[in-house]
Amino acid sequence: MSYYDIDAILTDAEKVPCKFELDIPELGYLDNNPAQPLKSGTTVGLPLWLAELLALANRAPSSADEEAKSFVSLNLPPSLSNEVMSALKADPRAVPLRDQSHNFYGLGTRMLDLFEEKEICAILRRTFVTRAADIALHAGKAGATDDMGIGGGEEFLRGLEEWERKLFKKAHDGAKGSKEWMEGVKKHRR
Amino acid sequence: MALSLPSGLVPTEVAFLCEMEMITIVPRQRLESIPMLSGKTPALRPPRRADLPLWLALLLKKQRRANIVPPPWLLPASLQEIVHLETNYDPEAFSPPPPPPMRSDGRGVARPYATTTRSGNEDKELILAPPFLPSCTQDAPSGYLPYHWLEIAETLLAHAADDIPNAPEVRALLRDLQEVRAAKMRASTRHLEGGGGVLNIRGVGAMELAESRGFVLGVVDGVRKLGASAEAGRREELERGDDEDESDDDMGL
Amino acid sequence: MDIDDILREVDPASQSIPAETRDLQALTRAWVSERSSPELLQYVHILPYPPIAPTTPVLTRRFPSVYSWPADGLFERINDRIKQQIERVEEMTGDMDPKTNFALIVIQTELERFKYLVRSYLRARIAKVFEKSIAATADLRARLSETEQAYATRHQALLHNHYLSSFLSAFPPTLQNLNDTAGNISMIETPDLDTAVFIRLLKETLVEGHGTDMDDDMDGKSGDIVILRWSDAKSLVDSGHAEVV
């Protein structure tokens, strides 16, 4: 991850579900309950950067026979839930990833760093490659017609998350560049 | 003033590169040798053919000082053969690039044109590669697309169509080639899911690379990032396996 | 000079490709590599000319054989030739004979092409200096030419000054660093050396590449165009077994 990378920063701000492992006074408002302390066992969505910090940091055991515990235990965000994974397994093209998360794959790689989830890893890769082939097709058409809103493909393109949008732009720029060069050459035709 | 171009040559840069390819001309006027930075041009004596870099050949053509001899691979029969190869031989791979040009070493032994050594030091040899290999002169083989095939073909069709036999058919065949090869380029990314370490796309052309570079490399890099944790886990396991082997060896001693 | 050298001198195969063409190939390759690789490469190395006896024939003076080829002194040779060529243009400009005139057009067109190559090569390098704070690491600094080093140093100083006067001076001194590594994120941006590249094999060679599920190797043939990580490609490129395309 690089310091000035906007996408990485935005991914860091994505919320992930965290279950608190202890009561915390005066934080009840996080659970819409400002009068009460935040109860142990409550699940709250926290931005990834904070969640990671709290999940990995150990607090001092409150008694000698208690093991060192973290403040919160992390869970997979809804965008990587079983339902979404099953839908992607069935047809990667049919899921508008953008609705799951603008930084779907970015969040995915961060979670895979924290959880050993071989199946999710495999599904994400197949999804990425399968959708990429469609992205190339649409971008090629758009590059050739100079028209970013392509007939029929709007729904699919609207559902692209950030990595995919970047990929679309690269594919589009490539097609556009070579088309422009071709047309430039042909103008000289006598 | 930083460079705003993306990493990797863009189509206009590829076109600049292809203009350094040597091409055969038939001069219509005498022209003395010109001392260029890239070496002296041959003295032109009509109708003796000569090889010149494409940019200079085009300059002569524009001024009607020369006609261009299209490379043998650009003739309709050759292109038909290549279209046949592309569509029927292997649905995934590109047709093979031309074999490396050979030349006599003066002792009756043929050796690759591409290698030039200086001071006999093998470490310091310079191997020529496109556009500095003669793949578009009259001596180039037919039936093979050289690295700069598309750019050369389009440029010649635009500036010297009257020198190309049956130009309309050549144009149509080129379109066919472009289409079937573009589909292959797109299909190549389908092999990337497993994230293998090496993918050979022998026979691809420079303009095709320029067009697809950002996309293909974007997919490769994306798969690598998505698989980074899996890869790290695999390497850890490998290392652990190696350690165990080593301890076995130790016991053997 | 031993017998092999003499034989090579009379060997038409090594003579038929003029040194000018080889230098143009070397310059072009340097340009393409710099445009297409994720990290800044070693500057095409420049060595000062050795003292030469005035009787030395022109050709050997321009291509002193003590220098290994191709890279060493490449830019100097090319700059030398460009200078000579510009002088020639100046001499020819007065001549109104249409025949010389055409030669002049050819020479000037070619000069422009060389200018483009050299400039695009330098710009591609400067762009990398710009993007990554190259001044910060000694390893990368060593790849820069002297003028590039001066450029990088000044650029870094100007940037720091600009930051200071714009906003950084309002921060406490401990937060003014531009090379902090807090939170496992370095402020110094480094290129991702695992970025994929395209290379062309120039010789038969074993190609090994790290992959996600498996590491691959293949017996590469000359002319193969291969996609692999730059970290796996670099040694093949450095040893002359492959070029970046």
Describe the protein.
The complex is a heterotrimer of chains A (190), B (253) and C (245). Chain A contains eight helices and five strands; from the N terminus they run αββαβββαααααα. Chain A has 190 residues and is mainly alpha-helical. In chain A, the strands form two sheets. A three-stranded antiparallel sheet of chain A has the order 2-1-5. A two-stranded antiparallel sheet of chain A has the order 3-4. In chain A, α5 (104-114) packs antiparallel against α6. The N and C termini of chain A lie far apart (53 Å). Chain B has two domains: 11-98 and 135-225, Ribosomal Protein L9, domain 1; 99-131, no CATH class. Helices cover 43% and strands 12% of the residues of chain B. Chain B is built from seven helices and ten strands. In chain B, the strands form four sheets. In chain B, strands 4-1-5 form a three-stranded antiparallel sheet, with helices on one face. In chain B, strands 2-3 form a two-stranded antiparallel ribbon. Chain C contains nine helices and five strands, in the order ααααααααββββαβ. The two termini of chain C are 37 Å apart. Residues 46-70 of chain C have low confidence and may be disordered. Chain C is 50% helix and 10% strand. Chain C is flat and about 70 Å long. Chain C folds into three domains: 16-131, Methane Monooxygenase Hydroxylase, Chain G, domain 1, CATH 1.20.58; 149-190, no CATH class; 192-245, Ribosomal Protein L9, domain 1 (3-Layer(aba) Sandwich). Chains in contact: A-B, A-C, B-C. At the B-C interface, α1, β2, β3, α2 and β9 of B face α1, α2, α3, α5 and α6 of C. β10 of chain B pairs antiparallel with β4 (225-229) of chain C, so a sheet runs across the interface.
